Amino acid sequence: MRSIVTARIWMPAVAAFLGVAGGFGAAVAQEENMPGSMDPGRNGQGAMMCRMDEHIDGQLAYLETELKITEAQTPQWKVFANTFRADKEKNARLCKSTENEQARSKMVSASLPESLGMMAARLTARLESLRAMEAAIQPLYSVLSKEQQKTADEIMKGPSGF
Predict the structure, then answer these.
(1) Which of 10, 19, 71, 124 is most exposed, with the fewest beta carbons within 10 Å of its own?
(2) Sequence spans of domains, the chain
(3) Contact yes or no for 129/137 (Cβ under 8 A)
């Protein structure tokens, strides 16, 4: 009787743990296979992501042209462009750094709690990056015309955007 009671208590706990561990493994695998993943060892895609700082001026020129930034909007544009440039350069440096390679290696051999902590740190850095971009885009977006805002919504959202 006692073994049945013990099994009823422990089985859901074991199932929950395996679900979290399995979900975590799937999340890591999914993150590593995402187009935005910065894994230099993956089919050349990661190496391309590590070169995200090579075409910043071209990206900014494209955005400025497509948005038809006016002279009056230039001050807000410059704030956005400087933040965009700094963010892309920072992410490229992180991607290229040996510290990032060591972190990936450590994550593979780390315990589940350590791996979750490392993932949380990476997500925190990404969130800080997004918040900086949001703070820079808000003043620009507020001075754009409705047509410019529509264009920004179309070309700056999604995987190819931020």
Answers:
(1) 71
(2) 51-155
(3) no
